[in-house]
Amino acid sequence: MTIEQLRPEGALRHAEPGSDPLPVLDAGVGSRLSPSELRRAAERLLARYPDAAIAAIGESGLFQPMPTSVPVHQHPVIHGHVSALELVAQSDYVAVIEAWKRTLACGLATVEAHPIAAAEATMRWHFIDSRAEYGVLLGLVVHSGSALDVDLGIDNPLRPRVSVVRKNGVAEFTELDGAFELLLGYPAGQLIGQRNLELVHPDDHPRALANWMDMLGSPGGSRRVRLRQRHRDGHWIWFEITNHNLLNDPDQRCVVAEMIDISEEMATQESLRANEQLLLRLTESLPVGVLQLGPDRAVVHRNQRVAQILGAQAAGSFAGLLAGLVKPDRAPLDSAVTLALQQAQDTDLEVSAQRPGGELLRCRISVRALLGEDGQPSGAIVCFDDVTEPARLREQLEVRATYDALTGCYNRASILQALERSLAQASPDRGGVAVIFLDLDGFKAVNDQRGHAEGDARLKQIGGCLAEALRHGDVVGRFGGDEFLVVSSGVSSPEQALALGERLAGALAHEVELTPPARAVASIGIGWAGGQHVRAGVTADLLVAQADTAMYESKHEGIGRPVLAGS
Fold first, then answer.
1. What is the mean pLDDT of residues 498-519?
2. Which of 42, 103, 386, 453 has its CA 20 to 30 A from that of 95?
3. What is the mean pLDDT of residues 19-30?
């Protein structure tokens, strides 16, 4: 309903009996309503909504004591709050403020909002400028659901945070402001003459008394203290209280105390303290060492596992940590921490460390950067896990996967991989690749006549003899039951490859006992790839097959002479 409809010549004057002349009151755009029109509007609102809550409001928008001249009747009076904004959801703040501006401009406005205590419901605020009649503006709240609980103790961000009270020399309240009741719930008159210490948490009594006595000894001075005060409902609220000693001021003769609600700050601090304790307990329960470094590499925190893994001396500082590592591993960890502190880069690495007792261990280290609010590195977390046993097992598995368990030579798969690497790296400038295939002669007879133990001993002897006879960079592998394969890189010609085969044959004849003496130790076939063969991309399988064919030619001769494939 607009202003024009509320004027005597509008709908307000011509409303039909039984109709609702005030479905929505809003001045909207137009001239201001007269005092008489506003008075009639207020009367009709109060009569139309006998259960609506009512508040007296000053021009600033803050609630005031209800004047006795207002015909409240059975209407519940809103108290315990500062303004209408404390009773509505934050999403409705702008709408309520705009309605209030319209009220000041035109005298009347209506707005629908959601109660902060029940966001799914709605309520209608009617604002009427009744200053000409009652000295205040009125706010009526029509709630769509159950009756509005105007005494609801809501922790609203708009409630006051500061109260100023006066006390005498023995800390008895002599004057309390309206904010004190809103903060602590006590009616102002209830505490006059009561000592403030009765509201202070028992654990804070010593601090409160010490601060009070210190303040009394400093006329004209001020003292600040943080204490918990008991709310009327029994819960405790943190305040920062500044007591100003004006007892010697003839115009004051009191202590003026400024009380600032710091419950949110203290709750945040308590949450941080609880989180810190949780993190500390968590780090102590972890099976890994945790070391927190500041931006200057100072140790901020370390758990007990650090000392257990590295020893107390090595874990006392970052420099001590580096000193506990073997020399080749110190620089990589130092670089990893530098990257974390300067570039916020994370790193994972493995290092070896020396325990105080001399034991060597293997550690897996994770370095993680910590970032400040500005997104820049503010420290680092260094976590390290003792992986000595897993590393040892891994190495054992790698050995098993790479070497023949009996002879210590490469196994079949590993020697073929070595051959493929040599072929991939070969070039006319680097020379060719030679493959020497050795098949032991008469080995089955050794097993049959002397047993498998003797046969195994012979295989180990052959493997060791071949390994000793190799050039630097050559490798030997057990290719099958009594077959060995030697891979040699950098072999410049077929003649050099043949010479290598003869060298191996001579070593075997010299070191290995012949049975019978006239028999050769092994049949030897040689394959070589170099020059155009390398450029053509000869394969490992092809080269092994060539050496195998040559070996059978050597075996056919029966004298242990190495045979070069294709010769």
1. 73
2. 42
3. 47
